[in-house]
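Engulfment and cell motility 3
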Amino acid sequence: DIKGLLTGKDCPHMKENKGKQNKEVLDLAFSITYDVEEYSLNFVAPSRTDFCLWTDGLSVLLGREMSSESMRSELEILLSMEIKLRLLDLENISIPDNAPAVPKPPTNYNFCYDFSQNEQ
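Predicted structure tokens:
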């Protein structure tokens, strides 16, 4: 069973290379530890986005809170949208329950200019 999720300087593979790792690599490191103390899976994510996705996903699976800056940013976007929708309601702008009907496709698609033909 998974015991925990370690990040940064707390990771076993970062402790082994203490002083040899730059801060960028240290910020992307995470480890999955198991009930058996001496065994862990060690990772270094290729980007900050991947690091946030992996650590947030593993945190949720372990029943913990997501804590990455990506999660906070996405939460802020969602809260901002909710506030804007509630403000629309205050201004008596009704939001329909059903999506609008999809229009019929055009009879032809010849409405784009063809740049490949040479003008004479």
